[in-house]
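Tokens for PH domain-containing protein. Go.
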Amino acid sequence: MYLVIILILFFFLFLRITIPIKEEKLNKVEYVELAGGWIGFWCLSIPLVKLVFLEDRLVIIAIKKYVLDYKEIDTLKDFMFKGIKIKHHNNNLPSRIIIWPNEKEKIYKILKTKINV
């Protein structure tokens, strides 16, 4: 019984990240990647986190939709082997945002050019 409930929850989480957001439909997206992440106390494996890089902000879709302007990002740090820890000053988002993208170097390059670190 528990396995069925877990499978149903996993299905709805995966379905949530596959639905395009409004900006994706308008072709205002620079890059999209499915990743893993640690957002607040939620630790989600690949592919349960969707990273959507727009011109002026980063949208992280996981359990909830988190919108982070690039100007709110303070620093980027390596986290373990493939992770990127994003330190920010937006009080409406969880303080812990760590992402595990497949293309770490590409994500680093995009974020560094956007926040000028």
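Residues 2-115 form a domain with the PH-domain like fold (CATH 2.30.29.30).
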